[in-house]
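Sample log: DNA phosphorothioation system sulfurtransferase DndC.
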Amino acid sequence: MQMFEKSLTRATCKPEHIQLTRRSLYEQYIADHRSWVVAYSGGKDSTLLLQLVYEMLLEFGPEGTKPIDIVASDTRVEAPNVEDYLADRLSRIESHARANGLPVHVHRVQPTPEQSFWGNLIGKGYPSPTRWFRWCTTKMKIKPSRAVIDGIVRKHGGVVLLLGTRIDESAGRAQRMEGRATNSRGLNPHGEIPDALVMTPIADWTTDQVWEYLFTHNPPPWGGTHDFMLDLYRQASGGECPVVLDLNTPSCGGSRFGCWTCTVVKEDKSMRGFIDSGAAWMRPLNEFRDWLKSIREETSMRDGIRRNDSIGPGPFNSEARKTILRRLFELEKTVGRRLIEDAEISYIQQQWSDKFDVTDSALAIAREFGREVGSLKVTSEDASSDLALIEELAPRFEVQSIWATDLYRLITERYPSLDSPSSHQQLLDDVIKVVENAVRQADRTEPAA
């Protein structure tokens, strides 16, 4: 700690905003034992924040022992060049931290199949997101990131969440940031994450100051360079997509780096910028995105009953979902890149089987395009969590947990796949046996009249 304190004292030649931020980071770091969580998106602001924290940790040396978790959100439908860049940065950071014995842990947060874009759009039939029905933000960003951060909080008993938000970004952002109540250390409690305090170390930096630091402190300490990121900004002419932890954080759109499937905006300017700058291979992705946006308004593609049973445009109908899945596989062939994971395909089949499909159509469509996919498997961790939930909920509904557990194990262990038509009838017969046995047991235990 003394070495870093001396470094701060010597750094009087640095501009004032850098001195103030470095001093603030140092004081907050030694103020308590709360671990730190740095929200990282790969864009300029979060890169600057992470670099300042990382440089501080390196200067601390062996005395810098407080855990620092880096949380980066990958929705699985990021613009491909941005997704590749983020994966490369995280890999470099993780390798460098490990090699230098730094207490840094990297989390590349991805949505589960049921939270994913394709799981909801093709599996459940959700129409592509709009400004009024932006289901993607909560499912693909907030819930996955929150789950990881909640786990870090449980492990350490509390965290300081470092965000790269800046007042200079917009008038609305400035008003929200300035309106938050802070404690004596200048931190404010996170509105939705218990035991989490929020710190915004570069809040007062201007955009020019951010760029100047990144240009003059290139390469970053974890290796590689900032050159590719700077080139991405030149191509997209936009800002970065933030790590979204609550609904008050603006989602991506407009010219920001965002999901290539984003149908919230009229035109994806960042994707258009990439294409115009030479990434012509992305054009089919942009055309597919435009098609997704257009078909949500076609009544022939939608059910006539909403999910709440009211009359009106409901989810995509079964034929529309099959069409979207088939065209997605065709798009994979065109761009030469995997766009949907096996687990998502299995989840889609699970949803279809539950609602309308008895012939495993999603798996058959995948097979047409050379994707041999099995049904979604339940991990031992998932099973333990599910069984604990059954034990908790069964008494509330006056159900014997043993029978609910039998039905659960029947589905997950004996019939994890319904590949053959006969397996559907076998499953039904076994379910009837479990229910009949439960009824008999209940009759035996009821007191005589």
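Observation: Residues 308-376 form one domain.
Observation: The radius of gyration is 25 Å.
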